[in-house]
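**Sequence, structure tokens**
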Amino acid sequence: MAPKERQIRILEWDDLDKRKFYTFGFMMSMFIRVTIYPTTLIKTRLQVQTQNALYSGTWDAFKKITKYEGIRGLYKGFFINTFTVLSGQVYITTYEVTRRAFGDHASNMTKSFVGGACASLVAQSVTVPIDIISQHIMMQGSALNLEAGRRKVTFKDAQRIIHKIWHKDGPIGFYKGYTASIMTFMPNSALWWPFYHFYAEQLAFLLNASLHVSVPAVAIQAMSGPLASATASILTNPMDIVRTRLQVTGGDSILGAFRRLHQEEGISGFKKGLSARLLSTVPAGLVIAVSYEILKRLSIKPEVDYKVQW
């Protein structure tokens, strides 16, 4: 039986000019990181703080950081974090190649789920050491002190953090929380792609087929990205808190970190940083979906440009 025709056609790996794909992809990855980094920094600080809370919430953190550290404070650790651009290229390549490996023998849901999981697994091996260093830098100056907060973070600070991690734990220190990262980002990635395609298909059917409202495919995908991000973030937030704490403050085990968090703050502790995470991931879902789809359209091979749906 032939598969049902999709409302929105998916451009696959073999349809793309790889040289264009990686050139445009690098530029779009940098744009995305510049856009979402401040909310990532706020999320990290909220998740690391314990009962003696410096910030009462996302908005309070934003006000205090900009007051005591300036706008530049929202980008502490960014110069280290830019190295994750490489992992972004690794991620999307793994995702697309995994989808291609399934061919026509699996549903789009299966290809999206497995592709997202594999992409995250491979990319985290590159990302985790960079994340650990940048998260330590994010915490620099997180005090209600104008002089301490406005102190510029330099490359020497990064060197000092690298030396401290190496001296304390050796090479394994740069993979602190690696298992927690895998347990956070693999499910998040594995959930995001199927939900993204699901929401896109349902919205396209509702708007174009049922209500007969002509909506461009990119607009529908732009709505689907944030919905997928919100869904995946809510489901994986407890694990993200544990991952962040293990990477910044240390700890022996994931289970121990879960227990400490529950003992200190109860069930509500597992929601810490969720609003900041949603403020980061929901707009990021919009930016990622639109950037990714435009990137694929710009990278399409001339001989298959008939497949493009705007």
Remarks:
- The chain has a mean pLDDT of 84.
- DSSP finds eleven helices and no strands in the chain.
- Residues 262 and 269 are 7 Å apart (CA to CA).
